[in-house]
Specification:
globular; alpha+beta; 3-stranded antiparallel beta sheet; 402 residues; 17 helices; 5-stranded mixed beta sheet; 12 strands
């Protein structure tokens, strides 16, 4: 089996309509191969679907390795910002399935009930229509990211956390800067600080005036949770549920527009929407460079011996394009059974908000396609600016017309 001497990381998405070529093309004849990170540290790259599931579900791998050795150099992020909440956000990745993390996850999942999801679905439908009304008034061409893909998940987070109506415009503005519209590192860090300060103010407000929201539900479910822990949970939900959904939505629309046959099939049969969302999640997988794990002991994965302390990076994009799991994985195929993809991760750290994300994508795509039957890109694909310098990949703008 061939071992790689080096794979460029972070990977660059050369094509706006597909995954990065570097990890997908680096699979060779092995689902796990050697990798040299940008700082010279040696580790492992997992590109196979079954190997990725094995690593992400194995308690012999810890999520804390990235703290000791960040394999992918990045601009300052939420976890490094002095304004960011501590507590649960900073502790949740310390180990696989740590008891306090599982306690937090159980509390959060207890609030993401089927009943809450049903109520949120109707609210999301209304919000999507209102945003599309505003985009239509703006007129073509319009930036789909700015007018629809970024504000919709931000509004969902506002509703989920119980952000008062009077505060939502500012909350949306700051979250948009953080999630994709910020032009400078200073602007992004400023948005971090503003959002953090706001969530620290929101928690005591929800204690004093509980409502039908997730924060109020958490307070009622466990009165031992501190304000710091609650603010950390709120920020974690914002981190996990805003820019990921926004860029998945924007990229999903663009890739559908680039595949008119698939788009026509979806327009003709809206019952295909659930499967279409799964295929778009598999095909695009906006989290590329990670998750990252470190071995707590010697572990054999698909015939490779990973030594204790070595870092393993899982390429979700490559795993979701593994031909051993998904036949002919490169084309977008809305008739494909894409269940089992790893866009939301796997194991103890699997995305808590995956069902809500699916609802947002399904509702948003349906509303957009109904409203604008002649929707099309406003610029050639190569002129769409890509977003490479963040853990969540996407576009800087998504110009569309109709």
């Amino acid at each position: 089996m061939t071992e790689l001497a080096s794979v460029p990381f972070p990977p660059v998405r050369e094509n706006v309509f597909g995954p990065p070529e570097s990890p997908c093309g680096s699979r060779g004849d092995a689902p796990i191969t050697r990798l040299t990170f940008e700082d010279g540290q040696s580790g492992w790259l997992v590109t196979g679907h079954s190997a990725a599931r094995a690593v992400l579900a194995d308690p012999r791998f810890t999520a804390k390795g990235e703290r000791n050795h960040p394999p992918v150099p990045r601009a300052p992020t939420l976890g490094e910002s002095p304004a960011a909440p501590t507590g649960m956000f900073n502790r949740q990745g310390n180990s696989y399935g740590k008891p306090e993390e599982q306690h937090y996850r159980k509390l959060i999942l207890g609030q993401l009930t089927d009943d809450r999801m049903r109520r949120l679905t109707g609210w999301i439908e209304k919000s999507a229509d209102e945003l599309l009304d505003a985009m239509e008034r703006h007129g073509a061409p319009a930036d789909l990211l700015e007018h629809f893909a970024l504000p919709l998940p931000s509004l969902v987070i506002c509703e989920l956390l119980g952000v008062p109506d009077a505060d939502r415009e500012e909350f949306q503005r700051e979250s948009a800067v953080w999630s994709g519209l910020g032009e400078t590192t200073e602007a992004v860090l400023g948005a971090f600080a503003s959002l953090s300060a706001y969530l620290h103010r929101l928690v005591p407000l929800r204690r004093a005036h509980p409502g039908d929201d997730l924060l109020s539900g958490l307070i009622a479910a466990d009165d031992a949770l501190t304000d710091e822990e609650l603010a950390s949970i709120a920020f974690l939900l914002l981190v996990a549920g805003h820019e990921t959904v926004a860029h998945q939505l924007a990229l999903g629309v663009l890739v559908l527009l680039e595949n008119p046959g698939q788009l026509a099939a979806l327009r003709a049969d809206p019952s295909l929407m659930d499967g279409a969302v799964e295929e778009l999640l598999r095909h695009l997988s906006v989290v590329h460079d990670g998750p990252t794990r470190a071995a707590l002991e010697d572990v054999e994965i698909d015939g490779r011996l990973v030594r204790a302390g070595e870092i393993v990076m899982v390429s979700l994009a490559a795993a979701n394009h593994d031909p051993e799991r998904f036949a002919d994985p490169a084309p977008l195929d809305l008739s494909r059974d894409a269940t089992g993809h790893l866009a939301f991760g796997h194991g103890a750290h699997r995305c808590l908000g995956r069902q809500l994300a699916r609802i947002e994508l399904r509702v948003a795509l349906g509303a957009l396609l109904r409203r604008f039957p002649d929707l099309r890109p406003a610029v050639p694909p190569r002129q769409i600016p890509l977003r490479h310098d963040a853990p969540v990949r996407g576009v800087r703008r998504a110009p569309v017309t109709w």
